[in-house]
Amino acid sequence: MVEWITSPGLVPYEAAVAEMERRVAAIHAGAEDEAIWLLEHPPLYTAGTSARIEDLRDPNRFPVYPSKRGGQYTYHGPGQRVVYVMLELNRRGRDIRAFVEALESWVIATLDRFNVKGEIRPGRVGVWVARPEKAPLPDGSPREDKIAAIGIRLRKWVSFHGISINVEPELSHFDGIVPCGITGHGVTSLVDLGLPVTMDDLDVALRATFEAALPDPAAHAD
Fold it and tell me: Is residue 62 packed enough to be buried (19+ CB in 10 Å), middle (13-18) or exposed (0-12)?
């Protein structure tokens, strides 16, 4: 079974990491079930294991936390749904690439519930939305905006950290970093795309699409 946890208010980042560390150890020990944790953070930046200091444009704007997840700099803040994914990959297959692709598929299926076409791009982690109404980039390529970020870590084949989906964050807060080290393209949200989606709406869609994207073979074994 997967336990779904939703935290009200804004959860401090350090407290969230400590709780993930505790839960991951309990899952590995067989003492607690897998978990999906839905929350929001106060405004902050995190630096993944591949973060480059030159991508931190405004180091004094918000607190900056080093993170042992994969990826580079990421913003978290109110209006963004953070989804911490604590799953046992010993049950789900020890294939990290396939697991990341499953998370991407989960985000894409969730966005599809709101008629938003999320897409992945080689060399660009996360989920992107085409913006044909915006001027193309200087090289003539179409404009695309990022709507979801993905960054995970594994400990003894239990995952933690996870994904973030922009519902209605303050998009100017992303200006303090080069999000995920990618320049040229921008950042968007469901509300920025003109959709009056609430956090509760997104949570319902996440739960409805989870099992198809991330099935648990062990749960269906004879």
Answer: middle
